[in-house]
Amino acid sequence: MQMPSGRLSPPSAVTVDAPARLHLGFIDPNASLGRAFGSVGLTIDGHGTRITARLAEATRVEGAGSAAQTARIERYLEQLHAAYGGPPVAIEVNETPRAHTGLGSGTQLALAVGTAYVRVAGRSATTAQIARLLGRGARSGIGIHGFDHGGLMVDGGHGGHPSAGIARLPPLLFRQPFPDAWRVLLVDDTSREGLHGDDERRGLASLGAFPRSLAAHLSHLVLMRILPGVAESDFDAFAKGIGELQHTIGEYFAPVQGGVFSSPAVAHALEAVAAKETAGIGQTSWGPTGFAFLRSPEQAERALALAREASRGMPSIACSIAAGRNRGATWRAVDLQKCGIDAA
């Protein structure tokens, strides 16, 4: 989401809607050809983030789902004010997905807050500039590019070794609209969280080298099966490619996350789907959310029923259906009086 250049005439309040994203797999975690990670991802139309920012007499955060989320937003506001100046800004959290489930909630929250802040403060900044300021995009660029563009994307990873730190946003190599008819079954294990923070860093550091031959195989798989499958709406090619990519990268991360899937219950539900339906199954990021791609809304409903039947007696399992989202984040000015919001 590019901000117009120059100083703006700012609205007094702005609402930003940011889409959730599925991280469908890394291509080369160890930079065997000089570029680390490289990612495939998709933005979806559910489980998004919505925040409202408004000018206020004092900085404050309202409606956050936890003390940790409040503290994170307060830290973002301090960083934004130090970088861009401007008057105090209040943030109201309207909607966020459950954190650390593989839906990119941390990046979307940071970018939504940053985008709203520069709007009401009358400043200009690109999404990449906001992401760098707030420390997002250390490995994957999918959440950042998804915020700008939506759709199915591939980024080119970071130049240099993955331990070298952030140099710049991974370049967007491919972006294609996701077929309208295709659906995604999401299966979440609400009793778990995916690896994050220091645990994630330690987990990555503990893994052995990713074989160059596997990186070459995944590159070939992405270029010659997954991307043509989306471009030509060839569901079978896409689903088979995603399933193979996910299994390969999942085996690499298995020693850290406890298996190809981090949640055995999610794996059980998705395996029940794959046994009856043609589907591309996997886990987004560190999970625990798993997914199954289906070719139609009708097939998605059948898969939903299969997943719920397989997880009967497992109250922590939550299933839902989403479509791909072929646009990025949106923002709109808010009329404070109509919304009943106290600007002070």
From TrEMBL:
<feature type="domain" description="GHMP kinase N-terminal">
    <location>
        <begin position="74"/>
        <end position="141"/>
    </location>
</feature>
<keyword id="KW-0808">Transferase</keyword>
<dbReference type="InterPro" id="IPR014721">
    <property type="entry name" value="Ribsml_uS5_D2-typ_fold_subgr"/>
</dbReference>
<dbReference type="GO" id="GO:0005524">
    <property type="term" value="F:ATP binding"/>
</dbReference>
<dbReference type="Pfam" id="PF08544">
    <property type="entry name" value="GHMP_kinases_C"/>
</dbReference>
<protein>
    <submittedName>
        <fullName>Uncharacterized protein</fullName>
    </submittedName>
</protein>
<keyword id="KW-0418">Kinase</keyword>
<dbReference type="GO" id="GO:0016301">
    <property type="term" value="F:kinase activity"/>
</dbReference>
<dbReference type="InterPro" id="IPR006204">
    <property type="entry name" value="GHMP_kinase_N_dom"/>
</dbReference>
<dbReference type="InterPro" id="IPR020568">
    <property type="entry name" value="Ribosomal_Su5_D2-typ_SF"/>
</dbReference>
<dbReference type="Pfam" id="PF00288">
    <property type="entry name" value="GHMP_kinases_N"/>
</dbReference>
<feature type="domain" description="GHMP kinase C-terminal">
    <location>
        <begin position="227"/>
        <end position="304"/>
    </location>
</feature>
<dbReference type="InterPro" id="IPR004422">
    <property type="entry name" value="RFAP_synthase"/>
</dbReference>
<dbReference type="InterPro" id="IPR013750">
    <property type="entry name" value="GHMP_kinase_C_dom"/>
</dbReference>
